[in-house]
């Protein structure tokens, strides 16, 4: 069969096919809408393949979001570098000097006595260093460190026996103690140093 014969056959078929009545499409679509949809199990709905398209439209908002992501990555890198370059902080436990000798020798005293802990961080170029931990409600402004002549920042805190989490805040940036004996996850992808007081 050649093209001319096919055209003739199609013309004859069209002539025999009646025209659909007016409104047929609307009536069919109403009936389709009324039919209940087949119910799928939650598992088949969950595992059914899906496709999606992601389109990026550049605007000021996306440019600002991109700049914020780059700034965050740079800050995280700087924070990691500060952790690596920080010198070993000095931790020293000292007995409290304000305890009267009679109270210390009293066998009736069973309450654990607080201990003075000296926190120190060598940070010559820092403008401000503070200490935040679970002992001060993680408030960086609660325990500022004082700068020494050699660039070492120190603070002495009275802590009761137990294990305490802490971190230094150097010029507004959280810096873990890189030379602490042990660490605990901080819940934000970093670590907090631990200090153990007493037995």
Write out key terms for the chains shown.
alpha+beta, 4-stranded antiparallel sheet, 199 residues, Immunoglobulin-like, 26% strand, 10 strands, 6-stranded antiparallel sheet
Walkthrough of the structure:
- It is a single chain.
- Strands 3, 4, 7, 8, 9 and 10 form a six-stranded antiparallel sheet that branches. Strands 1-2-6-5 form a four-stranded antiparallel sheet, with no helix packed on it.
- The longest helix has 26 residues, at 60-85.
- The chain is elongated.
- The chain has helices at residues 3-16, 24-34, 42-47, 60-85, 101-105; strands at 91-94, 115-122, 129-133, 143-144, 146-147, 152-159, 162-170, 173-175, 182-185, 191-197.
- The model is unreliable at 86-109 (pLDDT under 50).
- The chain contains five helices and ten strands, in the order ααααβαβββββββββ.
- A hairpin with a 2-residue loop joins strand 7 and strand 8.
- The chain has a domain at 73-96 and 114-197: Sandwich (Immunoglobulin-like), CATH 2.60.40.10.
- With 199 residues, it is of the alpha+beta class.
List the helices and strands and how they pair.
Blueprint: H1 3-16, H2 24-34, H3 42-47, H4 60-85, E1 91-94, H5 101-105, E2 115-122, E3 129-133, E4 143-144, E5 146-147, E6 152-159, E7 162-170, E8 173-175, E9 182-185, E10 191-197
Antiparallel strand pairs: 1-2, 2-6, 3-4, 3-7, 5-6, 7-8, 7-10, 9-10
